[in-house]
Amino acid sequence: MDSLDLHTCAEFDRWIDDAGTITLTAHTFPDGDALGSTVALCSYLRDCRGKNAAVILPNPYSDDIAFIAEDAPVLSYSQSREEADRHIGRSDLIICMDCNAFNRTEGLQDILSAAKVRKVLIDHHLGPDRDAFGLVFSTPDISSTCEHLFWILLRMHDMAGDAARLPEKARTALLAGMTTDTNNFANSVFPSTFEMASALLAAGTDREAVLSKLYNSYRENRIRLIGYLLGEKLRITEHGAAVMILNAEEYRRFQLREGESEGIVNMPLAIRRVRLCIFLKEYAQDGNFHISIRSKRGTSAASFAREYFHGGGHELAAGGRLYYPQDIAAPEDAEAYVLSCLDRFLQA
Ligand SMILES: [Mn+2]
Question: For 284-313, b where at least 16 C-beta lie within 10 A, e where not — what string?
Answer without folding.
Answer: eeebbbbbbbbbeeebbbbbbbebbbebbb
